[in-house]
Amino acid sequence: MSAADDLPEPMAAIVDDFTAVSERERLQLLLEFSRELPQLPARLEGHRDAMEPVAECQSPVFLLVEVDPDDAVHLFFDAPAEAPTTRGFASILREGLDGLPAREVLAVPDDVPDRLGLSAAVSPLRLRGMAGMLARIKRQVREKQPAR
User: Fold this and answer.
1) CA-to-CA distance for 74 and 101, rounded, in angstroms?
2) Which of 19, 70, 102, 115 has the fewest CB atoms in 10 Å of its CB?
3) Burial of 9 (0-12, 13-18, 19+ CB in 10 A)
4) CA triplet 144, 15, 114: central angle to 5 degrees?
5) Which stretches of the chain drop beneath a pLDDT of 50?
């Protein structure tokens, strides 16, 4: 059983990519993800008040989760360019979870940050920041799911 067997396919692919390379290459991969975090849509640009701050992160990170009527989850992050680790984690979560059905996002195990194999390369505080992002995503999904 691999570290990604119980993850949705997009997140499993990311975890597999990280665990397939050396520790040094994992840091490079994290930096690549940091550069791929999409900009906020114009309607959210400059409106951090519409987003939730992630207090567990050392850098000022804000997120917003939307759940559309078809139950698909959409993630939006605002993370500073000078915080590449934090941006990388946000980008991983966005790429791994955006567009999935709410039930799949809610089923993602809380230990996903640990499965990336970065514990020796980044501080536990930074990994807690990613765990905090995931916890807030899941809470917002629960709160915003369409009524059945």
Assistant:
1) 10
2) 70
3) exposed
4) 80
5) none
Calculate the dihedral angle through the C-alpha atoms of 44, 49, 52, 53, rounding to the nearest 10 degrees.
110
* pLDDT value, residue 3: 66
CB atoms within 10 A of CB 147: 3
Residue by residue, what is the 3-state secondary structure of 81-118? CCCHHHHHHHHHHHHHHCCCEHHHHHCCCCCHHHHCCC
Cα–Cα dist 110/51, whole Å:
22
Q: List the one residue out of 51, 100, 59 whose CA is nearest residue 77.
A: 51
Query: 3-class DSSP state for residue 60?
Result: coil
How many of the other CB atoms lie within 10 Å of CB of 50? 11
Give dist(CA 105, CA 74) in Å, integer: 10
Sheet holding 73-78, edge to edge: 52-53, 62-67, 73-78
pLDDT for res 64:
97
> What pLDDT is recorded for position 146?
64
The Cβ of residue 127 has, within 10 Å, a number of other Cβ atoms equal to 19
